[in-house]
Design brief:
This protein is 43% helix and 14% strand. The chain has a six-stranded parallel sheet, sandwiched between helices. The termini are far apart. The protein folds into three domains: 195 residues, 3-Layer(aba) Sandwich (Rossmann fold), CATH 3.40.50.720; 88 residues, N-(1-d-carboxylethyl)-l-norvaline Dehydrogenase, domain 2 (Orthogonal Bundle), CATH 1.10.1040; 133 residues, 3-Layer(aba) Sandwich (Rossmann fold). It is built from 17 helices and 14 strands.
Length: 437
Protein backbone atom coordinates (compact mmCIF):
# COMPACT_ATOMS: atom_id res chain seq x y z
CA UNK A 1 0.00 0.00 0.00
CA UNK A 2 1.13 3.58 -0.61
CA UNK A 3 1.29 5.56 2.61
CA UNK A 4 2.33 9.08 3.58
CA UNK A 5 3.16 10.16 7.12
CA UNK A 6 2.77 13.89 7.78
CA UNK A 7 5.20 14.72 10.58
CA UNK A 8 8.35 12.72 11.29
CA UNK A 9 8.55 13.24 15.01
CA UNK A 10 8.33 10.47 17.56
CA UNK A 11 5.00 8.95 16.51
CA UNK A 12 5.34 9.67 12.80
CA UNK A 13 8.81 8.20 12.40
CA UNK A 14 8.00 5.01 14.30
CA UNK A 15 4.75 4.59 12.36
CA UNK A 16 6.44 5.23 9.02
CA UNK A 17 9.35 2.83 9.33
CA UNK A 18 7.24 0.07 10.89
CA UNK A 19 4.67 0.27 8.09
CA UNK A 20 7.50 0.27 5.53
CA UNK A 21 9.02 -2.80 7.17
CA UNK A 22 5.96 -4.87 6.25
CA UNK A 23 6.29 -4.00 2.55
CA UNK A 24 4.35 -0.77 2.22
CA UNK A 25 5.82 2.14 0.27
CA UNK A 26 5.99 5.03 2.71
CA UNK A 27 6.88 8.69 2.36
CA UNK A 28 7.66 10.75 5.44
CA UNK A 29 6.70 14.41 4.95
CA UNK A 30 8.14 17.14 7.14
CA UNK A 31 8.61 20.91 6.85
CA UNK A 32 12.01 20.71 8.53
CA UNK A 33 14.47 20.33 5.66
CA UNK A 34 17.40 19.63 7.97
CA UNK A 35 15.53 16.80 9.68
CA UNK A 36 14.51 15.35 6.31
CA UNK A 37 18.14 15.45 5.15
CA UNK A 38 19.41 13.77 8.31
CA UNK A 39 16.75 11.05 8.26
CA UNK A 40 17.40 10.45 4.56
CA UNK A 41 21.03 9.72 5.47
CA UNK A 42 19.86 7.21 8.05
CA UNK A 43 20.56 9.48 11.02
CA UNK A 44 17.79 8.93 13.55
CA UNK A 45 16.69 12.25 15.10
CA UNK A 46 15.37 10.64 18.30
CA UNK A 47 16.65 7.85 20.50
CA UNK A 48 14.40 4.82 20.53
CA UNK A 49 15.68 1.23 20.77
CA UNK A 50 15.56 -0.51 17.40
CA UNK A 51 14.43 2.53 15.43
CA UNK A 52 17.73 3.36 13.73
CA UNK A 53 18.08 -0.17 12.34
CA UNK A 54 14.55 -0.08 10.94
CA UNK A 55 15.09 3.37 9.43
CA UNK A 56 18.32 2.39 7.71
CA UNK A 57 17.11 -0.98 6.43
CA UNK A 58 13.93 0.45 4.91
CA UNK A 59 15.76 3.39 3.37
CA UNK A 60 18.16 0.93 1.77
CA UNK A 61 15.28 -1.22 0.51
CA UNK A 62 13.57 1.80 -1.03
CA UNK A 63 10.39 1.32 0.97
CA UNK A 64 10.82 4.47 3.03
CA UNK A 65 11.86 7.90 1.85
CA UNK A 66 11.45 11.46 3.02
CA UNK A 67 10.50 14.75 1.43
CA UNK A 68 9.48 18.33 2.12
CA UNK A 69 7.31 18.35 -1.02
CA UNK A 70 3.68 18.20 0.12
CA UNK A 71 2.19 17.75 -3.37
CA UNK A 72 4.45 14.80 -4.09
CA UNK A 73 3.70 13.17 -0.74
CA UNK A 74 -0.08 13.62 -0.97
CA UNK A 75 -0.43 12.43 -4.55
CA UNK A 76 1.62 9.33 -3.67
CA UNK A 77 -0.70 8.10 -0.97
CA UNK A 78 -3.77 5.92 -0.64
CA UNK A 79 -3.59 6.53 3.12
CA UNK A 80 -2.23 9.67 4.78
CA UNK A 81 -1.38 9.63 8.48
CA UNK A 82 -1.22 12.93 10.35
CA UNK A 83 1.30 12.68 13.18
CA UNK A 84 1.71 16.33 14.12
CA UNK A 85 2.10 17.57 17.69
CA UNK A 86 -0.83 18.97 19.68
CA UNK A 87 0.92 20.95 22.42
CA UNK A 88 -1.14 22.47 25.24
CA UNK A 89 -2.21 26.09 25.11
CA UNK A 90 -1.92 28.28 28.19
CA UNK A 91 -5.37 27.12 29.36
CA UNK A 92 -4.49 23.43 28.94
CA UNK A 93 -6.53 22.85 25.79
CA UNK A 94 -4.90 21.15 22.80
CA UNK A 95 -3.45 23.44 20.15
CA UNK A 96 -4.73 22.10 16.83
CA UNK A 97 -3.48 24.95 14.67
CA UNK A 98 -0.66 22.98 13.05
CA UNK A 99 -2.99 20.09 12.26
CA UNK A 100 -5.60 22.40 10.77
CA UNK A 101 -3.04 24.06 8.51
CA UNK A 102 -1.78 20.68 7.36
CA UNK A 103 -5.31 19.43 6.66
CA UNK A 104 -6.10 22.42 4.46
CA UNK A 105 -2.86 21.96 2.51
CA UNK A 106 -3.54 18.24 2.08
CA UNK A 107 -7.11 18.84 0.91
CA UNK A 108 -5.90 21.25 -1.74
CA UNK A 109 -3.37 18.70 -3.02
CA UNK A 110 -5.51 15.53 -2.99
CA UNK A 111 -6.23 14.12 -6.46
CA UNK A 112 -8.18 10.93 -5.65
CA UNK A 113 -10.22 9.13 -2.99
CA UNK A 114 -7.98 9.17 0.07
CA UNK A 115 -8.12 7.97 3.66
CA UNK A 116 -6.85 10.62 6.10
CA UNK A 117 -5.85 9.13 9.43
CA UNK A 118 -5.53 11.20 12.59
CA UNK A 119 -2.64 9.56 14.44
CA UNK A 120 -2.07 12.66 16.57
CA UNK A 121 -3.76 12.77 19.95
CA UNK A 122 -6.71 15.10 19.38
CA UNK A 123 -9.82 16.07 21.37
CA UNK A 124 -13.20 14.54 20.72
CA UNK A 125 -14.78 16.26 17.75
CA UNK A 126 -11.55 16.93 15.87
CA UNK A 127 -12.45 14.49 13.12
CA UNK A 128 -15.72 16.30 12.49
CA UNK A 129 -13.89 19.63 12.44
CA UNK A 130 -11.35 18.23 9.95
CA UNK A 131 -14.16 17.05 7.67
CA UNK A 132 -15.56 20.58 7.61
CA UNK A 133 -12.19 22.02 6.68
CA UNK A 134 -11.71 19.46 3.92
CA UNK A 135 -15.15 20.02 2.40
CA UNK A 136 -14.38 23.62 1.59
CA UNK A 137 -11.09 22.84 -0.19
CA UNK A 138 -11.62 19.73 -2.34
CA UNK A 139 -14.20 17.81 -4.31
CA UNK A 140 -12.34 14.51 -3.93
CA UNK A 141 -13.72 12.13 -1.29
CA UNK A 142 -11.60 11.97 1.85
CA UNK A 143 -12.50 9.57 4.67
CA UNK A 144 -11.32 10.98 8.00
CA UNK A 145 -10.32 8.21 10.41
CA UNK A 146 -9.21 8.25 14.03
CA UNK A 147 -6.38 5.82 14.82
CA UNK A 148 -4.82 6.66 18.19
CA UNK A 149 -1.27 5.58 18.97
CA UNK A 150 -0.36 3.59 22.07
CA UNK A 151 3.42 3.79 21.90
CA UNK A 152 5.48 3.82 25.06
CA UNK A 153 8.76 5.67 24.71
CA UNK A 154 11.55 3.18 25.19
CA UNK A 155 9.52 0.32 23.66
CA UNK A 156 7.71 2.11 20.82
CA UNK A 157 8.97 -0.10 18.00
CA UNK A 158 7.88 -3.27 19.77
CA UNK A 159 4.56 -1.64 20.72
CA UNK A 160 3.84 -0.88 17.06
CA UNK A 161 4.99 -4.24 15.73
CA UNK A 162 3.09 -6.20 18.41
CA UNK A 163 0.21 -4.00 19.61
CA UNK A 164 -2.18 -4.96 22.42
CA UNK A 165 -4.95 -3.66 20.18
CA UNK A 166 -5.49 -1.41 17.19
CA UNK A 167 -8.33 1.10 17.48
CA UNK A 168 -9.92 2.50 14.31
CA UNK A 169 -12.63 5.13 14.46
CA UNK A 170 -14.72 5.42 11.31
CA UNK A 171 -18.18 4.90 9.82
CA UNK A 172 -16.68 4.30 6.37
CA UNK A 173 -16.61 0.65 5.31
CA UNK A 174 -14.02 1.52 2.65
CA UNK A 175 -11.71 3.15 5.20
CA UNK A 176 -12.18 0.38 7.76
CA UNK A 177 -11.29 -2.28 5.18
CA UNK A 178 -8.18 -0.40 4.09
CA UNK A 179 -7.03 0.16 7.67
CA UNK A 180 -7.58 -3.49 8.61
CA UNK A 181 -5.50 -4.53 5.60
CA UNK A 182 -2.74 -2.13 6.62
CA UNK A 183 -2.60 -3.40 10.21
CA UNK A 184 -3.13 -7.11 9.48
CA UNK A 185 0.60 -7.99 9.63
CA UNK A 186 0.84 -6.57 13.16
CA UNK A 187 -2.00 -8.56 14.77
CA UNK A 188 -1.02 -12.08 13.86
CA UNK A 189 -0.86 -12.66 17.63
CA UNK A 190 -4.69 -12.55 17.52
CA UNK A 191 -4.87 -9.25 19.34
CA UNK A 192 -7.88 -7.30 18.11
CA UNK A 193 -8.47 -4.59 15.58
CA UNK A 194 -11.37 -2.66 17.12
CA UNK A 195 -13.57 -0.55 14.85
CA UNK A 196 -15.65 2.03 16.71
CA UNK A 197 -17.26 5.39 16.10
CA UNK A 198 -14.71 8.10 15.39
CA UNK A 199 -15.55 10.16 18.48
CA UNK A 200 -15.20 7.06 20.68
CA UNK A 201 -11.78 6.38 19.18
CA UNK A 202 -10.72 9.95 19.92
CA UNK A 203 -11.84 9.49 23.52
CA UNK A 204 -10.08 6.12 23.93
CA UNK A 205 -6.61 7.66 23.73
CA UNK A 206 -7.30 10.41 26.25
CA UNK A 207 -9.16 8.12 28.63
CA UNK A 208 -6.38 5.51 28.56
CA UNK A 209 -3.59 7.99 29.21
CA UNK A 210 -5.52 9.83 31.91
CA UNK A 211 -6.32 6.58 33.69
CA UNK A 212 -2.64 5.60 33.75
CA UNK A 213 -1.66 9.07 34.95
CA UNK A 214 -4.30 8.76 37.68
CA UNK A 215 -2.72 5.51 38.92
CA UNK A 216 0.65 7.24 39.20
CA UNK A 217 -0.76 10.22 41.09
CA UNK A 218 -2.76 7.88 43.31
CA UNK A 219 0.20 5.76 44.38
CA UNK A 220 2.29 8.91 44.88
CA UNK A 221 -0.33 10.32 47.22
CA UNK A 222 -0.50 6.99 49.06
CA UNK A 223 3.30 6.99 49.26
CA UNK A 224 3.39 10.45 50.83
CA UNK A 225 0.81 9.35 53.40
CA UNK A 226 2.74 6.14 54.12
CA UNK A 227 5.87 8.13 54.76
CA UNK A 228 4.11 10.35 57.28
CA UNK A 229 2.75 7.28 59.08
CA UNK A 230 6.06 5.39 59.07
CA UNK A 231 4.84 2.76 56.59
CA UNK A 232 6.88 1.37 53.68
CA UNK A 233 4.85 2.01 50.53
CA UNK A 234 6.55 -0.92 48.78
CA UNK A 235 4.79 -3.28 51.17
CA UNK A 236 1.49 -1.54 50.50
CA UNK A 237 1.71 -1.53 46.71
CA UNK A 238 2.84 -5.18 46.70
CA UNK A 239 -0.21 -6.13 48.74
CA UNK A 240 -2.41 -4.14 46.37
CA UNK A 241 -0.79 -5.39 43.18
CA UNK A 242 -1.64 -9.05 43.72
CA UNK A 243 -5.32 -8.14 43.54
CA UNK A 244 -6.19 -9.15 39.96
CA UNK A 245 -8.56 -6.18 39.74
CA UNK A 246 -5.69 -3.75 40.40
CA UNK A 247 -2.36 -5.20 39.26
CA UNK A 248 1.04 -3.55 39.63
CA UNK A 249 1.36 -1.59 36.37
CA UNK A 250 1.90 2.15 36.84
CA UNK A 251 1.88 1.67 40.62
CA UNK A 252 5.45 2.71 41.34
CA UNK A 253 5.85 5.84 43.47
CA UNK A 254 8.34 8.45 42.40
CA UNK A 255 9.04 12.07 41.60
CA UNK A 256 6.06 12.37 39.25
CA UNK A 257 5.29 11.61 35.62
CA UNK A 258 6.49 13.62 32.64
CA UNK A 259 6.91 13.18 28.90
CA UNK A 260 4.96 14.33 25.88
CA UNK A 261 1.67 12.56 26.65
CA UNK A 262 0.43 12.29 30.22
CA UNK A 263 0.85 15.94 31.29
CA UNK A 264 -0.78 17.42 28.20
CA UNK A 265 -3.46 14.75 27.80
CA UNK A 266 -4.71 15.08 31.38
CA UNK A 267 -5.01 18.84 30.93
CA UNK A 268 -6.58 18.49 27.49
CA UNK A 269 -9.29 16.07 28.63
CA UNK A 270 -9.94 18.29 31.65
CA UNK A 271 -10.49 21.16 29.22
CA UNK A 272 -12.76 19.04 27.00
CA UNK A 273 -14.84 18.14 30.05
CA UNK A 274 -15.17 21.77 31.15
CA UNK A 275 -16.23 22.77 27.63
CA UNK A 276 -18.92 20.07 27.81
CA UNK A 277 -20.17 21.41 31.15
CA UNK A 278 -18.60 18.64 33.28
CA UNK A 279 -16.53 19.52 36.36
CA UNK A 280 -13.76 16.95 35.98
CA UNK A 281 -12.41 17.28 39.51
CA UNK A 282 -10.57 13.96 39.35
CA UNK A 283 -8.57 15.05 36.30
CA UNK A 284 -7.72 18.35 37.96
CA UNK A 285 -6.54 16.48 41.06
CA UNK A 286 -4.40 14.06 39.01
CA UNK A 287 -2.57 17.00 37.45
CA UNK A 288 -2.19 18.96 40.69
CA UNK A 289 -0.88 15.96 42.64
CA UNK A 290 1.71 15.36 39.93
CA UNK A 291 2.83 18.98 39.93
CA UNK A 292 3.27 18.84 43.70
CA UNK A 293 5.18 15.56 43.42
CA UNK A 294 7.71 17.09 41.05
CA UNK A 295 8.73 19.53 43.78
CA UNK A 296 9.03 16.90 46.51
CA UNK A 297 12.74 16.15 46.18
CA UNK A 298 13.74 19.81 46.23
CA UNK A 299 11.65 20.30 49.37
CA UNK A 300 13.46 17.40 51.02
CA UNK A 301 16.84 18.70 49.94
CA UNK A 302 16.02 22.10 51.42
CA UNK A 303 14.72 20.48 54.59
CA UNK A 304 17.94 18.54 55.02
CA UNK A 305 20.47 21.24 54.13
CA UNK A 306 18.63 24.47 54.84
CA UNK A 307 20.34 27.14 52.75
CA UNK A 308 21.44 25.69 49.41
CA UNK A 309 23.70 28.57 48.44
CA UNK A 310 27.17 27.30 47.58
CA UNK A 311 26.13 23.65 47.67
CA UNK A 312 26.71 21.25 44.78
CA UNK A 313 24.51 18.40 43.63
CA UNK A 314 25.04 15.50 41.24
CA UNK A 315 21.96 14.42 39.29
CA UNK A 316 21.66 10.98 37.76
CA UNK A 317 18.94 10.79 35.12
CA UNK A 318 17.35 13.61 33.15
CA UNK A 319 14.96 11.89 30.70
CA UNK A 320 11.40 11.52 31.99
CA UNK A 321 11.84 7.73 31.82
CA UNK A 322 14.64 5.30 30.84
CA UNK A 323 15.36 4.19 27.26
CA UNK A 324 14.50 7.57 25.77
CA UNK A 325 16.16 10.94 25.26
CA UNK A 326 12.87 12.78 25.83
CA UNK A 327 13.07 15.34 28.64
CA UNK A 328 9.73 17.06 28.02
CA UNK A 329 7.97 17.78 31.33
CA UNK A 330 10.58 15.64 33.11
CA UNK A 331 10.64 16.01 36.91
CA UNK A 332 14.42 16.50 36.67
CA UNK A 333 13.86 19.91 35.06
CA UNK A 334 11.83 21.12 38.03
CA UNK A 335 14.45 19.77 40.40
CA UNK A 336 17.32 21.49 38.58
CA UNK A 337 15.39 24.76 38.50
CA UNK A 338 14.75 24.53 42.24
CA UNK A 339 18.40 23.82 43.06
CA UNK A 340 19.64 26.66 40.87
CA UNK A 341 17.08 29.04 42.39
CA UNK A 342 18.50 28.18 45.81
CA UNK A 343 22.01 29.12 44.71
CA UNK A 344 23.35 25.60 44.27
CA UNK A 345 25.45 24.26 41.42
CA UNK A 346 24.37 21.19 39.44
CA UNK A 347 26.28 18.47 37.59
CA UNK A 348 23.92 16.36 35.50
CA UNK A 349 24.33 12.97 33.87
CA UNK A 350 22.02 11.03 31.55
CA UNK A 351 22.85 8.33 28.99
CA UNK A 352 20.78 9.96 26.23
CA UNK A 353 19.20 13.25 27.27
CA UNK A 354 22.11 15.67 27.73
CA UNK A 355 21.87 17.32 24.29
CA UNK A 356 18.27 18.31 25.00
CA UNK A 357 19.19 19.43 28.51
CA UNK A 358 21.87 21.77 27.15
CA UNK A 359 19.19 23.52 25.10
CA UNK A 360 17.24 24.13 28.31
CA UNK A 361 20.00 25.25 30.67
CA UNK A 362 23.01 26.18 28.54
CA UNK A 363 26.01 27.00 30.72
CA UNK A 364 23.98 27.26 33.93
CA UNK A 365 24.88 23.68 34.85
CA UNK A 366 27.65 21.17 34.15
CA UNK A 367 27.15 18.07 31.97
CA UNK A 368 28.73 14.67 32.55
CA UNK A 369 28.60 11.65 30.26
CA UNK A 370 30.06 9.48 33.05
CA UNK A 371 27.77 9.18 36.06
CA UNK A 372 30.65 8.95 38.51
CA UNK A 373 32.31 12.07 37.07
CA UNK A 374 29.36 14.07 38.42
CA UNK A 375 30.01 13.03 42.02
CA UNK A 376 33.37 14.42 43.30
CA UNK A 377 32.79 17.14 45.87
CA UNK A 378 28.99 17.09 45.58
CA UNK A 379 26.95 17.51 48.75
CA UNK A 380 24.52 14.79 47.63
CA UNK A 381 23.44 12.57 44.76
CA UNK A 382 19.93 13.11 43.38
CA UNK A 383 18.37 10.33 41.26
CA UNK A 384 15.61 11.35 38.85
CA UNK A 385 15.44 8.56 36.24
CA UNK A 386 15.56 4.79 36.77
CA UNK A 387 18.14 3.91 34.11
CA UNK A 388 19.27 0.29 34.53
CA UNK A 389 22.92 1.29 34.80
CA UNK A 390 22.17 3.13 38.04
CA UNK A 391 20.50 0.16 39.72
CA UNK A 392 23.67 -1.72 40.68
CA UNK A 393 25.83 1.25 41.57
CA UNK A 394 29.34 1.17 43.06
CA UNK A 395 28.37 2.48 46.49
CA UNK A 396 31.93 2.56 47.80
CA UNK A 397 32.85 4.83 44.90
CA UNK A 398 29.80 7.03 45.48
CA UNK A 399 30.58 7.32 49.17
CA UNK A 400 34.22 8.19 48.55
CA UNK A 401 33.37 10.89 45.99
CA UNK A 402 30.59 12.75 47.84
CA UNK A 403 31.31 15.22 50.62
CA UNK A 404 28.80 13.30 52.70
CA UNK A 405 27.11 9.94 51.90
CA UNK A 406 23.68 11.38 51.06
CA UNK A 407 21.30 10.20 48.32
CA UNK A 408 17.91 11.65 47.40
CA UNK A 409 16.26 8.93 45.32
CA UNK A 410 13.23 9.99 43.30
CA UNK A 411 12.76 6.52 41.80
CA UNK A 412 13.31 4.17 44.78
CA UNK A 413 16.16 2.36 43.06
CA UNK A 414 17.74 1.05 46.25
CA UNK A 415 16.39 -0.80 49.25
CA UNK A 416 16.22 0.89 52.62
CA UNK A 417 18.12 -1.99 54.24
CA UNK A 418 20.85 -1.74 51.60
CA UNK A 419 21.35 1.94 52.35
CA UNK A 420 21.48 1.28 56.09
CA UNK A 421 24.19 -1.34 55.62
CA UNK A 422 26.18 0.97 53.36
CA UNK A 423 26.06 3.85 55.82
CA UNK A 424 24.16 6.34 53.65
CA UNK A 425 21.68 9.00 54.56
CA UNK A 426 18.95 8.06 52.15
CA UNK A 427 15.69 9.73 51.22
CA UNK A 428 13.26 7.93 48.91
CA UNK A 429 9.55 8.16 48.10
CA UNK A 430 7.04 6.71 50.53
CA UNK A 431 9.58 4.89 52.67
CA UNK A 432 11.19 5.76 56.02
CA UNK A 433 14.33 7.90 55.61
CA UNK A 434 17.69 6.42 56.55
CA UNK A 435 20.17 8.44 58.58
CA UNK A 436 23.88 7.64 58.35
CA UNK A 437 25.27 6.68 61.73
Amino acid sequence: MKVTIVGTGYVGLVTGVCLADTGNHVIGLDVDADKVARLSRGECTIFEPGLTDLLQSNLAAGRFRLTTNLKEAVEHADVIFIAIGTPPKADGSADLSMIERAVVDIAKAVNKHTVLVMKSTVPVGTGARVEQLIASHTKHPIDVVSNPEFLKEGSAVDDFLRPDRVVIGTDSEYAATLMKELYAPFVRNNHPIIVVKRAASEMVKYAANCYLAMRISFINQVANLCEKLGIDVDEVRTGMGYDARIGSHFMYPGAGYGGSCFPKDVQALWHVAKAAGIEADLLRAVHEVNEQQKGLLVDRIRSHFGDLKGRAFAIWGIAFKPKTDDIREAPSLRIIEGLLAGGATVRACDPKGLDHLKKEFGDKIQYCTDAYAALPGADALVICTEWNEYRSADFDRIKAALKQPIIFDGRNLYSVDQMKRRGFTYYSIGRPPVKAS
